[in-house]
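Workshop exercise sheet. Pairs work together: one partner reads the sequence aloud, the other fills in the structure field after running the prediction. Swap roles for the next sheet.
Pair: D.N. / O.F.
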Amino acid sequence: MSSYSDGANNCLEVAHCRRKVGLWDTKDRGLGHLEFTLEQWQWFVDTAKRS
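Structure field:
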């Protein structure tokens, strides 16, 4: 369990690989993953910070 999941056991894993960012569910990796460009990921992070 992630120390950031607040005990809810709901975790996502994020990986930065070259020019992309990958995101997947740590409880069910078989579902696949999402890939974002660095620009898309930065937009997401900036938007999340403002919310």
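Discussion prompt: The chain has a mean pLDDT of 82. What would you look at next?
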